[in-house]
Amino acid sequence: MCGIVGVLAEKNAASMAFAALKRLEYRGYDSWGVAFKGGKSIEVLKKTGKLPESFSFQAGSGTALAHTRWATHGKVTEANAHPHLSNDKTIAVVHNGIIENHEELKHFLEGKGFSFNSETDTEIIPNLIQLFMGEGQSFKEAVRLSLKKIDGSYAVVAMHAGERELVAARNGSPLVIGLGKHSIFAASDVPAFLDHAKKVVYLNDFEMALLGKKAEFFDVLTGKQLEKDVEEVNWSIEQAQKGEFPHFMLKELNEQRFTIKKAVQQPKGIIEKVSSMIKNAKGVFFVGCGTSYHACVSSAYIFSHVAKMHVNVVLASEFRNYEEFLEKETLVIAVSQSGETADVLDAVKTAKKRSSKVVSIVNVMGSSLTRLSDETIMMNSGPEICVLSTKSYTSQLAILLLLAYVVAGKQVEGHELVEKAAALSQKVIDESSAPAKELAARLKNSRDFFLIGRDLAFPSALEGALKIKEVSYIHAEGFAGAELKHGTIALVEEGIPCIVFSTDQTRPLIMSNAQELKSRGAFIIGIDSKPNKLFDYFFRVEEVGNANPILMILPIQLLAYHLAVEKKLDPDKPRNLAKSVTVK
Ligand code: M6R
Q1: Order of strands across the sheet that contains 497-501
Q2: N or C: which end of the chain has fewer CB within 10 A?
Q3: Which intervals hold domain Glutamine amidotransferase type-2 (predicted)?
């Protein structure tokens, strides 16, 4: 859940670490810190709150570490911010993950005379390294032995005041090594170093890297040296920058003009292969969290309508309850932008334990999920930096829609439908932008929003509500059209904004639900291809049948964005959230 960086560079390592950290800010923004060499000692700078736009470091050649925190252990204070130092101040560590046996290790170290300055579990690590070095171990070996003592998850980078090397390791939390011409990086995610390195090495669990004049790799458990593949990333630095847009959310939302189409431009054979796995499976489960879960809910309707097939949709965090129904022939399809969501990885591990097959639909290349899956369909959306999922959602919908059509033997029809939606997305975004801004100014002080949709538009109501809540902090709830009157309609009062997703197929019934709301004074915002006298406000969204969910969410993404801007909130970094939720 945190962002970590280690840099080894000829000069300006501290500034480079800060710049890299800035690109990982979406991973956590409660507090931050940088450690760098100041002569023979390690200087540490820590601050609470978000990272400033820039920061100048007087020194810092050789090695530097940086960390942006999303608090798990201990409050948001400077003392709890990383990097953490050993008692003798010669070793600094940044860490993402959770050390489950930290209490036990803390008592062990206290027994050896160590003291602690923070409430974090991380502070254990530099002190264990100090202990092992005191017993005569090399820096690299001391890190390895320390990690062997840890139960739980970690991505760790350690530096030593007297060494020109960094040691990085992972188990359960993401870490990638970037190999540049004049620098080497270890970071939670590739965008951190895209301006310096495109050659990468993805670490697997229990692997470590010794970064010096070159990068060497070792097994944490055995110490044995490993041969690792160097891969080339195809993301550009421009994709990881805001460019002319004020926020990543607006940039990424606008990119849907291209990303929806790109999502279905897949390498030859993969869609066919996965669709035949779906056809031949004895039970199919779609799992995901948050927005990705909403894409899964959509897929249940799509598979039912198009492929005439029942699929199970389960929140990844609840999937373990289904373990006994998993067999060798069961197929689990894990949907995740980051490929690092802990609950999704846990669900996949449950499936693997039962020898079920796993297919993932992922955006981030080299992520943990890709390495746990039998087959992976890449979303091709490019880096999604804003904490809110926008373009990744419509890419997921496009891929799931295509899969259902291929399962039904209607590949050409599926492609045509996605391409039609992709072409219309430009029009919907352009035509909705100004009205969404105007509507946001009018509704920014609302206390609640209710959203309703039936059939395929029901998951759109769920996703629309999530978008509004997480970015504007206005309470919003999505319902299947008929459900609101089973209780929640008691909350509807004069002027309350209610968003109604309507399609050719659902119009008669959803309008009667809209009428029920209107009769109680609701302010009705229609998302439809046709105007209606019930609508107080109207976003026109062309009818594209089974691809409707791809287009219907666009005006609400825009509305959510403008609500945040109107409320002077940062849409890219909503409070309490982080882009990748790497804790269960
Ligand atoms: O990376 P993932 O798709 O697995 O992430 C799952 C959720 O954490 C994510 O969709 C979250 O709900 C977003 N903030 C929604 O905008």
Answers
A1: 475-480, 448-453, 497-501, 523-528, 537-540
A2: C
A3: 2-214
Give residue 398's pLDDT. Answer: 98
DSSP letter string, 305-319 = HHS----EEEEGGGG
Residue 390 phi/psi, 5-degree rounding, is -125, -70
**Domains defined along the chain, listed by start:** 3-232 (3.60.20.10), 248-566 (3.40.50.10490)
pLDDT score, position 60: 61
Q: How far apart are CA 118 and CA 70, in angstroms?
A: 15
Tokens of 389: 């999922």
Angle between helices 290-306 and 457-472 (to 10 degrees): 170
Count Cβ atoms below 10 Å from residue 276 Cβ, excluding itself.
12
Residue 61 burial by Cβ neighbours in a 10 Å radius (0-12, 13-18, 19+): middle
- pTM (predicted TM-score): 0.88
Residues 6+ apart with CB under 8 A from 56: 15
User: How do residues 492-538 score in pLDDT, each as one tens digit?
Assistant: 899 999 999 999 999 999 999 999 999 999 999 999 999 999 999 99
* Model pLDDT, residue 78: 86
Q: Angle formed by the axes of helices 391-407 and 270-280, to 10°?
A: 60
Reduced to 3 states (helix: H, G, I; strand: E, B; else coil), residue 155 is: strand
Going by DSSP bridges, is the β-strand pair 448-453/375-378 parallel, antiparallel, or unpaired?
A: unpaired
Report d(CA 348, CA 282) in Å as an integer.
17
Calculate what percentage of the chain has a pLDDT beyond 70. 99
- pLDDT for 575: 87
pLDDT at 485 over 90: no
The answer to whether 286 touches 335, Cβ cutoff 8 Å, is yes
Q: CB within 8 A of 420, min separation 6: which ones?
A: 544, 547
Distance, CA of 30 to CA of 577 (rounded, Å): 10
As a whole number, mean pLDDT of residues 17-42 equals 88
Q: For residue 396, report the distance from its CA to the centre of ligand 1, in Å.
A: 12
Tokens of 85: 């130092």
Please give the order of strands across the beta sheet that includes 231-232: 41-48, 31-38, 62-69, 3-9, 183-187, 176-179, 199-202, 231-232
CA of 579 to the centre of ligand 1 (A): 7
Expressed in angstroms and rounded, the spacing between residue 292 Cα and the centre of ligand 1 is 6
**Using CA atoms, how far apart are residues 479 and 461, in angstroms rounded to an integer?**
6
State both tokens at 267: 């390498």
Region of poorest pLDDT, from 13-17, 218-222, 313-317: 13-17
Residues belonging to the active site: 2, 579
Length of the chain: 584
Beta carbons within 8 Å of 115's beta carbon, 6+ residues apart: 87
How would you classify residue 225: left for phi > 0, otherwise alpha for psi between -120 and 50, otherwise beta? beta
Is-contact 118 128, C-beta < 8 A? Answer: no
- pLDDT higher than 90, residue 237: no
Which residue out of 338, 360, 379, 392 has the highest number of ligand 1 atoms within 8 Å of its CB and is therefore the one to mutate?
Answer: 338
pLDDT digits (tens, 9 = 90+) for 285-316: 999 999 999 999 999 999 999 999 999 999 99
